[in-house]
Amino acid sequence: RVVVGTKVDEKHENFVRAYNMLTGIRFCVSRIHAKMDRDLTDADFGQAQKYSFDITGGELTPSAKYDFKFKDYAPWVFRHIRSSFSIDPAEYLVSLTAKYILSELGSPGKSGSFFYFSRDYKYIIKTIHHAEHKFLRKILRDYYDHIRENPDTLLSQFYGLHRVKLPYGKKVHFVVMNNLFPPHRDIHRTFDLKGSTIGRDFREEDLEKNPRATLKDLNWLRRNLHLEFGPTKKEAFVSQMQRDVALLQRLKIMDYSLLVGIHDLERGNEENLRDKTLQVFQPGSAKPNDPQMNQLDRTPSKMESVRRARELRESVKKERPVPMAQTVDKMPGEAHRKGFYFYQDDGGFQATHEDDASGEEIYYLGIIDCLTRYNYVKKAEHFWKGMGGHDSQISPIPPDRYGDRFVRFISGVTMSRERAEKERLSQTLE
Ligand code: ATP
Ligand code: CA
Ligand code: CA
Predict the structure, then answer these.
(1) Measured between alpha carbons, how far is residue 236 from residues 179, 239, 336, 355 in Å?
(2) What ranges does the record give for the region Disordered, renumbered to this chain (predicted)?
(3) Which fold would CATH assign to domain 184-285+337-430?
(4) Quick count: other Cβ atoms within 10 Å of Cβ 213?
(5) pLDDT for 341-355, tens place per residue?
(6) Best probe residue, ligand 1, of 196, 364, 369 (max atoms within 8 Å of C-beta)
(7) Coil, strand, or helix at residue 108?
(8) Ligand 1 contact, 124 CB (< 6 A)
């Protein structure tokens, strides 16, 4: 399967759906932020609001370019979640405005989900299955409590949960979440690690035609790689991962992975910025000469973002007389991840040596794809694969063991360069 990020313009088959997603988000987010902030109630977690958009406009909704239905889930909860992650509402709206066309990343996984990047690449929209959607609603309270107690969580940051439906079309659920990778730096290698070895190999031969492919556990081991963190960063990283995984285990989640993007500071940025923007975000193949890619405009300048944010703020104010929440006064355009421990080094987490001095790489990492529950399907799969005998190696194992194996693997490969060298030597001597 060839994966190329394509600009979703009028000619794109999913243009209307993507356009409506953004229109719906913009409307719902403006609407919730037009209200005075308040504490959450239990009812907020189960809330869902339906809207009907059409070209004439309705009682609640402004006129839209297309007819479609939109559903917004737990708007108050997600407002609070965004605020916990320091997402500026005006900036969020600027990034996800329908005027900015998205780019679509076919379906990089086996799941059939579609991924869309906001124009500035800060956010990812992922379409999810109905089961994942129901599950997220069910665990929303636990997720919310967890991120409040763990502001530095490595788990995917969910900023919104919505549903869109075109006339005669099927219902499509989607989440908005953080893009772990930065818009301004080349990612030289990407790994998706689960701590399993079976089926966790990207064919090295295919790397030539697809140099930016997402590699897996066996490719990592073959290269003898490490997450090169000295004692201080290692301790912080491993203990946060343990807390996050404990939540996933309690909620019976599995199949998640640690996504690792490596930026090599010595190599720096090789591609020119314009071509780079798409390549960085492609787990799949890069085709810099693809005309569709060259259509991709620059991301808006800081000045422009400031101006647009101001305009939006004004328009939001006009739509509803109630003043907006306090948070909007921060400078738009500033990295929203500032102040988050694992995103402190230019949006990522820089390698350190054994003496904690800075190292040569920046890692962009997080735990992704964490909405798969260990259900009957997985149990059935476990049964069949389990017949093969190497039970602890296969992916669908129960959530407790999945999590333990995940933590063991990741902590096992987390060590400074010096430490790794020492271990290698002592192994040779044995
Ligand atoms: P499957 O269930 O088959 O694994 P999926 O459709 O659920 O696939 P994910 O595992 O969530 O997809 O993601 C697939 C790929 O998309 C990842 O390996 C990564 O390259 C990219 N990706 C996903 N989430 C993010 C994110 N938050 N930031 C950057 N890249 C991401
Ligand atoms: Ca996955
Ligand atoms: Ca998945």
Answers:
(1) 22, 5, 21, 15
(2) 281-307
(3) 3.30.810
(4) 22
(5) 999 999 999 999 999
(6) 369
(7) coil
(8) yes
